[in-house]
Amino acid sequence: MPKVTFRIADTDSRTIDAPDGTSVMLVAVQAGIPGIVGECGGDMSCATCHVYVEDQTGFKKRSADEEDLLELSDDLRETSRLSCQLKLSAATPEVEVEVPPHD
Ligand code: FES
């Protein structure tokens, strides 16, 4: 079962076991991780699931649609991803996610 560690504002972190097939966004929303909202439910139309992932081994690369939506996000970085597009599987046993700062 994949483990997802959320680093929140450099001061807090939480590690959650998550089943294969779910997305990082759903894990975050179900766990109440602050700063990840998932407003559109994963339809790739809101960008309220923006995160940074340094090591993206095992995840699909960003699609053109994901790139377009990310460009609307504040604090875009090379490591930016929409967490609704990050599907957990045996190929992603340990994932570390940084939650962007939010107001
Ligand atoms: S949840 Fe809306 S774009 Fe990811």
Give the ligands present: FE2/S2 (inorganic) cluster
* CATH domain fold name: Ubiquitin-like (UB roll)
How many DSSP helices?
Answer: 2
Low-confidence stretches: none
Mean pLDDT: 94
Morphology: globular
Roughly how many Å is the radius of gyration?
12 Å
Structural class: alpha+beta
Number of domains: 1
Main sheet: strand order? 2-1-5
Number of strands: 5
Secondary-structure element order, N to C: EEHEHEE
Which CATH architecture?
Answer: Roll
State the major sheet: 3 strands, mixed
CATH fourth-tier homologous superfamily = Beta-grasp domain
Please provide a written account of the structure.
With 103 residues, the protein is α+β, with helices and mostly antiparallel strands. It has a single domain (3-99), classed as Ubiquitin-like (UB roll) (Roll), CATH 3.10.20.30. 15% of the residues lie in helices and 23% in strands. The protein has two helices and five strands. It has helices spanning 24-31, 64-70; strands at residues 3-8, 12-17, 50-52, 80-82, 94-99. Strands 2-1-5 form a three-stranded mixed sheet, covered by helices on one side. A two-stranded antiparallel sheet has the order 3-4. The chain is globular. It starts with a strand and ends with a strand. The mean pLDDT is 94. The site of FE2/S2 (inorganic) cluster (FES) has 13 residues, from loops. Keywords: 2Fe-2S, Iron, Iron-sulfur, Metal-binding. Belongs to the adrenodoxin/putidaredoxin family.
